[in-house]
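Review form for a predicted model. The reviewer records the input and the model, then writes brief findings.
Reviewer: anonymous (R2)
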Amino acid sequence: MSKPLFNQYGHSAKMKSQSLQAIELTNNRHKQIFEKSKMN
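Model under review:
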């Protein structure tokens, strides 16, 4: 693999994992709120 292509791929992979983490965080937050509202 040529270096520019590799860097581009690595960058997009990093961006993707960051957005996945953000989605998981949001999902966890909603889950916690849902559990709390169920308790009440």
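Findings: The chain is about 90% helix and 0% strand.
Further findings: Residues 15 and 36 are 32 Å apart (CA to CA).
Recommendation: see findings above.
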